[in-house]
Amino acid sequence: MKVERHEIEWIVPLLTLLIVGFGMVVLYSASVAAGGGFFVRQMVFIVVGLILGISLALIPDRFILATSYLVYIGMLLLLGLVLMIGTGPTGRWLGMGTFHIQPSELAKIGVILALARFLSDRRTDLSKIRYFFGMALIAVVPFGLILIEPDLGTSLVIPVITGVMAYIAGIPHLAVLFVVSPVAVMIASINPYAIVIVIAILLALGYFAGIRINVAVLWGAMMGAIGWMTPKLWLQLKPYQRNRLVTFINPEADPLGAGYQIIQSKVAIGSGKFWGKGLMEGSQTHRGFLPEQHTDFIFSVLGEEFGFIGAIIVLVLFWFLIVRLLYLTKKVASPHSKLVIAGVAAVLAFQVIVNVGMTTGVMPVTGLPLPLLSYGGSSLLTMFMLIGLVTGMASRWRRTG
Question: How many CB atoms lie within 10 A of CB 50?
Fold first, then answer.
């Protein structure tokens, strides 16, 4: 197999800038409607993000690999610090004056780099339980810290990153079953009989996959504990988080309260029809009916003012970007680079699916922004840094055959 060095990757940055450019047009309208200077501040974030992205693209892969765990540890320290001195309405930010960062966004970088180093190590064998739990530990610690903030939406990105990167690393089928089983049990926890049935099915699948008896007993006990704890964790959620999940099932039950955002978002998107109402012409947007229109619900503004065709253009751009990242995982020569790129693709795909899903009413409102479009410095800078890492790695050693 031939390897070619320095094949400049220009498609990923080009697609990124196209999405950002389209987003700035939409954000301009949302910023005017919200009566704030979000557009100007987002321009500043873009400039800073470009500088950070280009800088990371120029850093050698060996240096990134060598410092991965240090970045991860620094990220954990920031997550711990925000629990003690966090600022803002929900206490998720660190900073002074007008400068603030959201450590839970930066955590995506730390987790991706740490997992990529761990999983690309030749000694790592995910078929052995100690390595599997080592991988799980890297993900569980930041997941727990982010969940405690509480930031449910961002915390969900961590297991998605872990699952995708583990799959790319060649995780055995039995390990996949271990990863999926807690989610299945948590969903089934609404009914005690359902928990028993699900655990029995999982153990049966584990038996056919060759699980040992002692591991099966431990695994079954853990699944039972998760099923028992889930209802108690539900009570620990903030009232607004429980309302979001309940409202997802029936938003019309509280149309002026918890269901208001979803209903207004669906009205905005639906009113745009095929071609949209035109820039600055959205009635839901400019008459104050649509909350959080410049952040989590920017897609609703897009749908109202640019219609179905505008929404499709943006989604197709995202699709091309994600597909390009997946293609690059097949072309880069370094296992470490392959895993980093897969992690970035997972972040993009998950957040796009969840954000578009929640604005259209097919998923619960989780507070996840739409990458590269939603207003927000921490989110945008994080994405630019991740894209910078990908661009640099894909521009170096690459397979040609």
Answer: 17
How far out from the chain centre does Cα 258 lie? 24
Query: What is the spatial distance between Cα 302 and Cα 315, in angstroms, rounded to a whole number?
Result: 11
User: By the 8 A CB rule, do 372 and 383 touch?
Assistant: yes
Among the listed residues 91, 98, 182, the one whose alpha carbon sits nearest the alpha carbon of residue 139: 182
CB atoms near residue 249 (< 10 Å) = 8
For 93, the 3-state DSSP assignment is strand
126 contacts 172 by C-beta, under 8 angstroms? yes
Q: What is the mean pLDDT of each run of 10 residues along the chain (401 residues)?
A: 68 97 91 78 94 95 95 95 77 71 93 96 83 89 87 85 90 73 72 76 76 76 80 67 59 56 80 86 72 81 92 96 95 92 96 89 80 91 97 79 55
Give strand pairing partners of 101: 94
From residue 153, how far is each of 105, 267, 303, 339 by CA, in Å? 11, 24, 23, 23
Measured distance CA(386)–CA(106) in Å, rounded? 10
Name the amino acid, one letter, at 281: E
Tokens of 186: 């948590």
Q: What is the pLDDT of residue 1?
A: 47
CB 19 within 8 A of CB 372: yes
pLDDT of res. 35: 67
